[in-house]
């Protein structure tokens, strides 16, 4: 119910003018329009010959190359293969990273004994282990999945370990008073408190997973997006190579957006 003073009639709320709309959404408009302006400039410079086609093809040519892959069904098949590789590596590395993070975070003894070797392994460039992985596991799917898992595990391990060590000590003291078991502590106090930082680690791990896959699929791959890139390289199809790289980038952005939605829903109680 709207209160109004005697002798006045409440009128309709005036619509915001264009100036107010611009002030309110100017940065969103700029963020959206800047890539469009860049693509238009790229297309114009390519059409005028200022950007050589054998160095950087025009956006239209790249789009046509992608359309060709879609029509042939090759892109759909490659997306399925690469997606499975990332999913398997993410599940394996994620489970290992979170379990190690929880165990080391809860135990000072494990921190003293297990954390130093883990930090030594983390210091190794995991992509530099590709020759060893090929010698150990062959050139099939296993080394690709294991490389992704290795890259994924450490961000989740570090974030989980750090999050558990930052749990409010007063909550743990209350758990002692209430006689909580270890499982009750994990379920009611530790995991909910650690969830925000663990989700940050998951976003970092997803980025590393796609980066690792790009490199892993360049080596002895017979299917997947990396296989398409290798074929395009053999036939000097720069437009197709760039399109496949754009697909990798879009996959990384999409999976990151999914985790952000999950993060928002999982942590909505904080609002």
TrEMBL record:
Broad class of where this protein is predominantly found: membrane
The superkingdom listed in its UniProt entry is Bacteria
Q: Which GO terms describe its cellular component?
A: plasma membrane
Question: Where does this polypeptide localize?
Answer: Cell membrane
Q: Which GO terms describe its biological process?
A: alkanesulfonate transmembrane transport
Keywords annotated in UniProt: Cell membrane, Membrane, Transmembrane, Transmembrane helix, Transport
* PROSITE patterns assigned to the protein according to its UniProt record, in alphabetical order: ABC_TM1 (PS50928)
Membrane topology per record: Multi-pass membrane protein
ABC transmembrane type-1 domain residues are 79-259
* Transmembrane regions: 89-109, 121-139, 145-164, 240-262
The UniProt entry, under PANTHER family, shows: ALIPHATIC SULFONATES TRANSPORT PERMEASE PROTEIN SSUC-RELATED, ALKANE SULFONATE ABC TRANSPORTER-RELATED, MEMBRANE SUBUNIT
Query: Which family, according to UniProt?
Result: Belongs to the binding-protein-dependent transport system permease family.
The name this protein goes by in its record: ABC-type nitrate/sulfonate/bicarbonate transport system, permease component
Source lineage: Bacteria, Bacillati, Actinomycetota, Actinomycetes, Mycobacteriales
């Amino acid at each position: 119910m709207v209160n109004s003073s005697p002798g006045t009639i409440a009128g309709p709320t005036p619509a915001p003018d264009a100036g107010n709309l611009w002030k309110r959404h100017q940065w969103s408009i700029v963020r959206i329009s800047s890539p469009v302006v860049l693509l238009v400039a790229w297309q114009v410079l390519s059409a005028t010959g200022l950007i050589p086609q054998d160095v950087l093809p025009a956006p239209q040519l790249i789009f046509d190359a992608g359309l060709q892959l879609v029509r042939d069904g090759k892109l759909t098949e490659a997306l399925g293969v690469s997606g499975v590789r990332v999913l398997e590596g993410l599940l394996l590395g994620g489970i290992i990273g979170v379990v190690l993070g929880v165990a080391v975070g809860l135990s000072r003894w494990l921190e003293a004994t297990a954390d130093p070797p883990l930090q030594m392994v983390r210091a190794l460039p995991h992509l530099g282990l590709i020759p060893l992985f090929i010698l150990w596991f062959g050139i099939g799917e296993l080394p690709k999945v294991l490389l992704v898992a290795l890259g994924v595990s450490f961000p989740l391990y570090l974030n989980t370990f750090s999050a558990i060590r930052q749990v409010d000590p007063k909550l743990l003291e209350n758990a002692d008073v209430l006689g909580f078991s270890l499982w009750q502590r994990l379920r009611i106090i530790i995991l909910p408190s650690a969830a925000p930082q663990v989700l940050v680690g998951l976003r970092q791990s997803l980025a590393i997973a796609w980066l690792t896959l790009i490199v892993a699929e360049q080596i002895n791959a017979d299917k997947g997006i990396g296989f398409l890139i290798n074929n395009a390289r053999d036939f000097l199809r720069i437009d197709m190579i760039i399109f496949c790289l754009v697909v990798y980038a879009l996959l990384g952005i999409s999976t990151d957006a999914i985790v952000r939605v999950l993060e928002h829903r999982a942590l909505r109680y904080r609002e």
